[in-house]
Every structure is written in structure tokens, then in C-alpha cells.
Amino acid sequence: MAAKTALQVVVTGGAGQIAYSLIPLIARGLVFGAETRVNLRLLDIPPSAMALEGVAMEIQDSLFLTVLDGVIATTDEAKAFEGAQVAILLGGFPRRPGMERGDLIGKNAGIMKRMGEALERYASRNCKVVVVANPAPTNCIVLASHAPSIPRKNISCLSRLDHDRMVGMLLHEANRCLAEASGSVGNGTLGGVSDGGGGGGSRRRLGQADIRGVCVWGNHSNSQVPDASAVEFFVDGRWTPAASVIRDAAWLTLSSNAHERFDADGEAVLGLAEAVRGRGAAVLGARKLSSAMSAANAIAGHLSDWLVRPSAPAAPGLSAAAPAAPGAPQIVSMGVASDGNPFGVPEGLFCSFPVRCLGDGEWSFAEGFLLKEEAGHQLSLSVQELQEEKAMVLDALGGDASVQPPPSPRGGGGAAVGAVATLAKASGVRSNGTPISSL
Amino acid sequence: MAAKTALQVVVTGGAGQIAYSLIPLIARGLVFGAETRVNLRLLDIPPSAMALEGVAMEIQDSLFLTVLDGVIATTDEAKAFEGAQVAILLGGFPRRPGMERGDLIGKNAGIMKRMGEALERYASRNCKVVVVANPAPTNCIVLASHAPSIPRKNISCLSRLDHDRMVGMLLHEANRCLAEASGSVGNGTLGGVSDGGGGGGSRRRLGQADIRGVCVWGNHSNSQVPDASAVEFFVDGRWTPAASVIRDAAWLTLSSNAHERFDADGEAVLGLAEAVRGRGAAVLGARKLSSAMSAANAIAGHLSDWLVRPSAPAAPGLSAAAPAAPGAPQIVSMGVASDGNPFGVPEGLFCSFPVRCLGDGEWSFAEGFLLKEEAGHQLSLSVQELQEEKAMVLDALGGDASVQPPPSPRGGGGAAVGAVATLAKASGVRSNGTPISSL
């Protein structure tokens, strides 16, 4: 019976905007694979019960019967989490105008405590979790501490949207530079997406398989560290450092004051790091709605790389439309427990790192990545913010002693690193490392 | 160069909600096929330019580079329609509270006149068009009359959402009855989507490949005719009339007063036709937002069946997760020009009919369908409404003589029907036909 093998997936905030963009991706087999039947449980709070019912109607009307084995739309946590094998936590308390950051963190800590308890009580012991609700890494701390039976390595938060934004901007800029260099300038287009129809050159546009070494480290906040120091593009048959492709090298650096460029209208062009950090606000400002489509897309990527994809991204240099060929394991930015990380981040936090997805739910820290001086410095500031948030959470939950790193972390990384250095030390020791080609 | 072969697709109302759900489907190759590169032009009106820019940002952030060859987000009709090979017209004037139907039709006629002129002036002569903006069939009349170079057979409107809603409800009810009959009652779930995890029986659930004979005829309005008289399910290895599977036979009939059933809470269960007609309002009432997800899904189905799919729906009786096998050509409800239809609908209108999609942009009327007494009667009322709307459009556009059926319709159906009978006559002649198994 199909129901016996269906994957049990719970989505909280099921009536929200991100869920609305994510559900069709799940229901068309784009997250867990076309061969995996899914039993989808949509959870939301009672005031959203009607809206949730509307979503369930639309799911029926979309005839998603090939992948969806069943749908439960409910406000009952027990029903939603019972036997859950994957939990996608979108539901949180949004920041209201005038709200203090501490209040926001406290409100969401309460929600995450409930979610953690529900996981502990009802979910599969091997449930895989991605937290999207903000403050995502700190929410993971609360969640993990209230779901002690769930391995900490199974709990993650989304930094993939930041990662994908950075990849998109890097590809856009690299393609612009390559087109300019070869004399085929594409039509300028609104939003910066290049128009393949313009220009007369025949240079192949770089795609997702033609970039590596991207990482957004740290907190999912303005302190995030979009580190391009190890980025390489696959150009003319070989991996080439980003600074050799993108002529405005200062655009790539993390120190925003190093960058000065003006566009055709005389407006200052943001440096890469600043643009990545400000992207969510830019989309919100333009749409007056948050970036649900790209968030859902990033969640799909995060989960499919982690849980499904058998270490086979498209080989570089192929035309973008060509089928994927075996390649190096997927390395992406992922918010995970810091326990056992080789980058010097203290234990007991959740933080975005470069992570190697090994497929089938396994991952390890991508130990080939080196933290260069500026990235190390900025990461230490972001980690400081994570520690402050952790303190606020402890405060909000009444100093609950359970919100502590476990005495013996179960989730040690795959990297063969002995004693974990402090970040400050690592940052000093590892600075000025050169990008290596086997990243 | 890839750009030379990319499909040029324009989406109007590009900053709207349906576009927001549709873009990821296009950009992931789910509409025009994974092998077809797409140059996407998003058009909206100047007040939506910022929002459109936000959407373009999110497209870049979603790394849709495998399928998307380029994206243009613009408020300039010339740029959007230049060389367009597919036009998806979502943009229209929404009905405001207190607005008369005639006003709504007039406002949208003005928009469609512009769209028709843009098609005529800029688009490929073989551009395929689907109109989603309401009143969709009447909008097609205006559009076609202002784009005389575009074959009328290339212009369609969406009735697929109504069709899919009907399919979803029929499958749900059939599965409920089959489960009850075999003693394995699934858990009741919010929104009526069955929960495959419940029940102890081993009966295979019917999927999309296990139903045929569905058609929603007429206008895309409350006068639509969700006709289940020819519906059959593939049960126990053979095609079985719907009334032999669904025990509440009155639920299937078009005359709503024939149906009386009450659910567990004592509330009257709507008959199928009434439920299909009221579904849009039900979703709107529940979500407080229109049914963008399921509309986008229906548009994807409409276009891929029409333009891409090589007549190969999944073979019936296979497990829903099994790969599709060659089968009968896809028959779906589609709003098309009535010219040459074998069902007795007068020429010069656009109307939803059962249509056989032959792939690669070809379709023919599904002449195997018979109009039974009640469906024929209701269709004549819906056609009367279409004629009234046409008159309103003529009025709104100042009696523009060009809004007339062309003297010699280019878009005759594929059915080998001689003289086209009037609907009244056809309805009489064809009534009481029995469903035939080769539908």
C-alpha cells in the first residue's frame, strides 16, 4: 500500500505566503523527488483555519495526485507532527512596527518551544527539520533543546536564500563582464536579469554549474557574511578565480567602503556583500510583500540537496540545458549546529556554514573552506550576535536550563579536525589562506 | 546561440498573484518542457513597475538559469510583445464592489483591444494565446478582432481551472465511495482532500489517469455547464460509468434541485455542478485571496497539453507514481472559437468545449462528446449569456464593426461535421445519447 511508504512531511505556517509558493514544488515532486509519495500535513494557528481550508481546496483543484498521497490541513499539532519525517517550520511571529528585537525573539522562542515539544512527542526520531521562521538560527537552539531525542545534526535553518541571492548576483556580474569583454553587451533589463536575446556575441552564459566556492556565513541577519573570497567560475574550460572574471574586484570584497562604482544613472552600485544583505529588504520594498517565491525555491534546494540529491550537480561547462552529469558533492550554505565545526565557531550555536551535502540526509562541514582575514573578523561579529540572541532566548524562556549545548554533542562534523580552536584563534591561524581548487 | 531558439513568452499582469504562482512553473520547465529555453517577458502597468522589479529580483535569486534564457520586466507593450510566440494574458481590470457587469466588461474590452493591437503589431504570426483575465471568452472576441492576422484557432481562454476542479471533486467522491464500499474509510480531512494514510483497505486510489469524459461547457461564469454525463472511471480493470461508482447519482446531475444529501454536521452537500460553479467564490471566501495557485496550475496544464504534450497521458490503472505510458489523446475543456464546432454553438463566439489536444499547438473539437438534454439546455443559456456579453462589448467599444465573426472562419474544427446545426436543433437531435467508450 502506497500510504505505508509515503514520506510524512509537516509544514507549519501552512496558510502563509511561503507555504503557498512551496506547496506546488512539494506536490510536483521537486523537493523530495518525483518517485517519493508525500503525505502533506499543513499546520497553522486557529485564526488561519479558514485560509488553510482554502489552500486545501486549491490543492485538490490542482490534481497533485501523482505525488501527494494525502493532505491534512489542521490546527492540531499532534495530528500535524504524528510520525513526521520532515518538518518545515515556516510559522513564526512576524516583526511588527515598533517592536523591539528582544520582544520578537521572545515571542518566537515561545513558538519554537511548542514546536520542539511537538517534535519530541510526535515526530519520527530521525525527523529532518528546516527552520525558516526568524530568527532562524536562534529558533533552532530553542527547538533542539526541547526536542532532545532528535539528533542535533537533523536540525537546520535556511541560509540558502542568502546563498542563492549571492550566486545569482555573482553569475549576473560575471556574465555581464564576460559579455562586455567579448563585445556582446546584452540589453539592460529591469531587475538585473540578463536578457539572453540581446547582444551579438556567441559566448556561452555561465550557469549554476559554473560557479563554486560561495558561502554565506553566520547569522541570518544583517550581520551575515557573504564571503566571495573562494569563488571561482568555470570559464574557457577551467576554474578561474572570481577576481579574474569580475573586473571590479572591490565589488567582491566584504568591506563595503572599499567599493565605489556608479551606474549609468549616476547611482552608487552596492558592493556584493551589501547587496546580498539588503536583498530581502529590497524585494519587500518593491513588492510590498516578502520574497515568498525565492524563499520557497531556496527551501526546495536546501531540502533536495540535503535529503535527496545523490551528490551529482551538473558538470561545469555544459550548456545549461544539458542533463546533469556526476560531479563533486554539492557544497552549499546551511544553518547547522556548530558542534564540531572546523571553523572555530563556539559550540552550542546554530550558524550558517559551508556544508557538503552527501545525499540521503547526510552532511559534513566543507572543511576545504578557509576563513580569510576579513571574513573571519566579520564572522566573529555575527557569532557574537548569535550569542546575544541566545542570551535573550534564555532570558525570554525564564533562564530555562535546557537551552544549553548538550554536554556531549552528537552532531560532530565530518571533518577530521581535532580540538576545535576558538574563532579568534582560527581566524588568525587561517587568515590569508589561498582558495584551493578542490573546494 | 541558445537565444536564437528560445521560446518568446509574454505574461501580462506580470506583477500579479497568478503570475507569481505561474512564473516558477514556467521557469522550471513545467509548462513548455524541460528542454525548451524560454525568454520571459513580464508586462504590467506603470503603477506596478516597482512590484514587477521585485519579481524580477526574485527570479534572479531563484537561479532559474537552466530554462530561462532571459527575463524582461517592462511596462512597454512593444518590448513585451515583440516576436512573442506565446501570450498569457492575466492582466485585466478586477471587479470592484458595486461595479455593474457591463462596466466590468467595458473596462476589460478596452484592455483587450490594446492587447489585440499589440499582438497584431508585434507578435509572431503564429503566436498562441491564452486569456485568463475575465470575462475570458468575451475578452477573446475583442482580442481576436483586433489581431486579425493571428489565426483564431490560436486564441484560447482558460476553462481548465473549472475542468480541474470538477475532476478533483469527482475523483474525491469516487475514491470516498470505493473506500466505503471496500470498508476502508479514510480519515476525514479539512478541505476534502483524502488522507491516504488512513483506512485499512488496500484498494488503489483513483488518479488523474483513471477518469475521462469530463467537460465544463460554455461561459467561464456561473452559467458554466459542468457536465458529468459522459464521465467514466477506470475501476477493476475497465471503464465504468460514474453513476455506477458514485452511489449518490443525483450529486452528478446538472439540476441542483435534484440533489439532497447532508453531511455529518447536518449541512447540505452541494451537488457537483453547484460546487464547481461556486468553487472560486469558496476559495476566495476562505483565503480572502483568489485562487492563484490552482489557476497557475491550470494554465500550465492548458498550455502544456496544447503546445507540448505529445498525446500521451498516463495509461489508466497504473499506480499514480508510475511513469506515463502512451494513451488516448488528451481531451480537456478549453475556451476556443466556436467556428466550425460540431455541438451547435453559433459561430463568432468563444466558448468552452471538449477539445482534443494533438500536441504541438494543434487541437480539434472532441466530436465524440454528446450533449445530453439537460447539458444542451444549460449550454444554450450559457451561450445566450455569451451573446449578451458580446453585445455589451460592441456597445462599450462604440459599435466597432470589427468585433464581428470573420466572414470566412479560418479556425474550423477538426471534426468532419458538415453544416453546423443551431444549438437548439443539436440539443434536440443529440439528446439522450449514451456515453461511448471511445471518448
Automatic annotation (TrEMBL), chains A, B:
Gene Ontology biological-process entries: malate metabolic process
Pfam families: Ldh_1_C, Ldh_1_N
Catalytic activity, EC: 1.1.1.37
EC top class named in words: oxidoreductase
Domain annotation Lactate/malate dehydrogenase N-terminal: ranges: 8-155
Residue stretches spanning the membrane: none
Name of the molecule in the record: malate dehydrogenase
